[in-house]
Structures are given as structure tokens and as C-alpha cells.
Amino acid sequence: MARANDLTADGPEHADSRAHLDKLTKEHGRLGEQLDALKQKDFEDWEEEQIEHDGPMGVWDALAEQVEKLVDKLESHTPKKPR
């Protein structure tokens, strides 16, 4: 998330990327709240829900994949900064 934020400039050419990053940031917060709620559940309840669904890691993986795609897109259109 930090890399995507660093690569997103303030200019109008990055408006779509900033909007996408804002959406992903909100989703990250929402998923963090869900994960915290899952941590509060009894193990048996959590295990049953995980079996019924893909589980919290599936959701995190999907979000991470979207962020990685955004970073790749931004890096391919942004000159590299010297380190």
C-alpha cells in the first residue's frame, strides 16, 4: 500500500490511480475490522465459518493481488527514483 501511495503523484494523470488506491485503502480498513472480529470469535465458530467460506486469507490475498497490480501499473509508467 505504501509503495502504491508513493508512486501516485498529485497530477491529473494519476487521478484514476488515486481513486483506485483510495478504494483499496478503504477496503483494507474494512477487511482489518473483519479480521479483528474473527479474532474475537471462538475457534470452533471461526473454523466452521472458514470451512464454509474461503477464510480471511483468501480475502487478504485478493486485496494484495489488486494492490500489486496497481503498483505494477504505476511502476511501469513512472520513472525510477534513485535510491
Q: Any overview of this molecule?
A:
The chain is an all-alpha fold and 83 residues long. The protein has one domain. Helix content is 77%, strand content 0%. The protein contains 4 helices and no strands. The longest helix has 26 residues.
Furnish the topology, listing elements before pairings:
Blueprint: H1 2-7, H2 15-40, H3 43-52, H4 56-77
Outline of this structure?
By secondary structure, the chain is mainly alpha-helical.
Given as residue ranges, the uncertain stretches (5+ residues, pLDDT < 50) are none
Could you state the order of secondary-structure elements as H and E?
HHHH
Q: Using only CA atoms, what is the Rg? A: 16 Å
Q: Characterize the overall form.
A: elongated
Number of domains: 1
Distance between the termini: 19 Å
Largest sheet report: none
Strand content: under 5%
Which features would summarize this protein structure in a list?
0% strand; elongated; mainly alpha; 83 residues
